Amino acid sequence: MLNIALPKGRLGDKVYELFSGIGYDCPEIGEDNRKLVFENAEKGVSYLLVKPSDVAIYVEHGAADIGVVGKDVILETNPDIYELLDLGFGKCRLAVAAKNSWSDNTALPLRVATKYPNVTKAYYAQLNRQIEIIKLNGSIELAPILGLSDVIVDIVETGTTLKENNLSVFSTVAPSSARLIANKSAYQFKSKIIDDICRELEKKI
Ligand code: PRP
């Protein structure tokens, strides 16, 4: 059985569609229930529905053999996994944003609110800019509005959230998209099915 970690939510729906399109369907997934594990014994696959930011943890520890995760999460957590394929969707970028009127005062440390402290530290270290990180878990855009931070480092997809909160992008930190990842030892022991999946997915994307 190949265990596949799917990120719950919009990205996961798209990933499941892709996998079912190459023959690894599991119709029970579309049903309205609270199950987290779905098996298709005949196809030899089992899907695990996990929080998007946890996919790489399941794969790194071998609880899942493969999974799909955003490049943003890989950059932040640096998991010990193989990154096999850029699926080309879930495209967005990690960016520095602030109030439209913001200008940097380089005499002071920059207060940065983010869900991505590691990416943020590495980005500003390379710019030699002193920062203070304010780690948040969501609604990051509130921080500069309330004066909790000067800027944010966050995901920008359509730009709607920034626009509706009178914020603008000031620089791009890194592009991101959905990646197929594999556990390192599963990739050795289940190489045939994993390679088949990679080849079929490549044809589809
Ligand atoms: C993400 C991100 C931004 C928003 C960007 O938030 O943190 O807030 O999406 O998308 P947009 O550019 O298309 O508007 P998410 O929906 O994950 O919720 P969160 O605030 O809980 O992080």
Please, could you describe this protein's structure?
This protein is 32% helix and 32% strand. By secondary structure, it is an alpha/beta fold. The strands form two sheets. It has a six-stranded mixed β-sheet. The chain has a five-stranded mixed β-sheet with strand order 8-7-9-6-10. Strand 7, helix 4 and strand 8 form a beta-alpha-beta unit. The chain is elongated and about 65 Å long. The two termini are 25 Å apart. The model has no long low-confidence stretch (mean pLDDT 96). 1-O-pyrophosphono-5-O-phosphono-alpha-D-ribofuranose binds next to strand 9 and helix 6.
Give the CA-based shape.
Answer: elongated
Structure annotation, total helices: 8
Q: Evaluate the radius of gyration.
A: 19 Å
Helix fraction bin: 25-40%
> Which cofactors or ions or other ligands sit in this model?
1-O-pyrophosphono-5-O-phosphono-alpha-D-ribofuranose
- Could you give the order of the helices and strands? EHEEHEHEEEHEHEHEEHH
